[in-house]
C-alpha cells in the first residue's frame, strides 16, 4: 500500500533519517521505520473508520425499524477504500 502525498515519499533516496513528532517529543528515526509507522497508523485509521461506518449503519437501521419508517435507499452502499480513492484522485488529477 502506498502512503499518499507524504513528504517521506518526496525525499531524496539518500536521506537515511527523518524527524518524527510523537507526543510533543521529536525523535530521529530511519526513513524505513518512519514509513512503517505512518503506514501502520493509516491502516489503523482505515479499520476504525470502517468499524464506525458499520456501527452507524446498524444503529440507523435499528432506529428506522423502531420508528417503523421505510429503509433508507443507499444506506447499504459501501464506501470506497483508500486505494480506490487514491486511484480515483489520480484519474481526476489532470482535470482539476
TrEMBL record:
Residues 35-69 form a coiled coil. Keywords: Chaperone, Coiled coil, Cytoplasm. It is found in: Cytoplasm. One of its GO terms (cellular component) is cytoplasm. InterPro entries: PDRG1. This is Uncharacterized protein. It comes from Didymodactylos carnosus.
